[in-house]
UniProtKB/TrEMBL annotation:
This is Mobilization protein. Pfam families: MbeD_MobD (PF04899). The lineage of its organism: Bacteria, Pseudomonadati, Pseudomonadota, Gammaproteobacteria, Enterobacterales. InterPro entries: MbeD_MobD (IPR006983). It comes from Shigella dysenteriae. It comes from the Bacteria.
Length: 31
């Protein structure tokens, strides 16, 4: 795997974690 691919994968992982966290925040805000 190239370094660029590694960077892309890391960025995707960060985005997914951020998205999941926001989703939890929203859910707790509405319950």
């Amino acid at each position: 795997m190239t370094e660029l691919e590694m960077h892309l994968l890391n960025a995707l992982e960060q985005l997914q974690q951020d998205y999941t966290q926001r989703l939890k925040d929203w859910e707790s805000a509405f319950t």
